[in-house]
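Help!! Second protein's tokens look totally different from the first
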Amino acid sequence: MSFFDIFKKGFFPERHEKELEAVKIENNFEKLVYIARNSSFSDVRIEAIKKISDEDVLVDIAYNDSNREVRKAAIKKISDEDVLVDIASNDSNSEVRKEAIKKISRVHVLDSIYRKDSNRNVRETAKNRLEELNWE
């Protein structure tokens, strides 16, 4: 059985536990990326993301994963402020936008989000971030 067989849908009855075990001991970059993009279980994908530092992979996951918690885990590791601004301004999920806002340091962007976002909680997160940056 190959490593990738563990991650085939329906291969093991206890697939979730097997995947979690595999990701915890895995250090091979390509395998971790495969897990982060292909596991059926969001918590397994998040565990893989914790071990990935490649910004391009993290950005791809932040933009494309179907699960907001997985996208948030990727955002926590992204340093490209242009990407963070784009996500904070355009992601359809308010929780994902809030996670990106927490890492933005561009005052004019935060001010715009604070004034214009349709979600009250997102606006509040932008306001709090502005206060952290001592902006008035």
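Here's the second one for comparison:
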Amino acid sequence: MLGFKYKNDEHIFNEKIVNDVPFLSYPLFENTGIVNHGFSTRLGGVSKGCWTSMNISITRGDDPEDVEINKERIAGAIGETSVIALLIGAIFLILMGVIDLRIPGTYILTFVVFIVLFGGHLTSGDLGQFVVQEVCGGGLILGAFFMATDYVTSPITPKGKIIYGIICGCLLGIFRMFGASAEGCSYSIIFANMLVPLIERFTIPKPFGKGGEK
């Protein structure tokens, strides 16, 4: 389908099709044997017109019945994922010092601020419920804590991690609120990864005692 690859030709994502529904999975999570996850594409759904075909957002004007069918199809293909279980795993990794809270914290916080500012008009119901739905739905929790914090592709400087998280949050907000796809977490991380060398270039702290450039 997409063919994302590392420089050594290894696939960044595994591309799967279950019950005629294509989706992407992250190899590192699959190798654990205990993390059930996946990222939807625009294929394999029942939506028509400009929402063709896997639209899982109720804020884009699509037929609500088609959206519910799409959610059932992608959930059935990937398997249900517990947000609580993901948060428990994230807390454990944070307490063990494996991951830094700067990236997932700024990622999620930036996304929440973005959808409150630019996405509140898309729902006629309770804004709080809308925010919870957007945060807990899709791959945000999984991506923020377990993908964006990857040692190889994320910044190593404290300021860089915060900037990186803000960029991921803004990109995800743009993809979800203004794009044709309800998801976008994986794409926001991929695009932000390309900016990591530039981020680190401007956030590397100066050695102690070093004066300004002359």
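Reply: Different proteins will give different token patterns, so don't panic. Residues 158-178 form the longest helix (21 residues).
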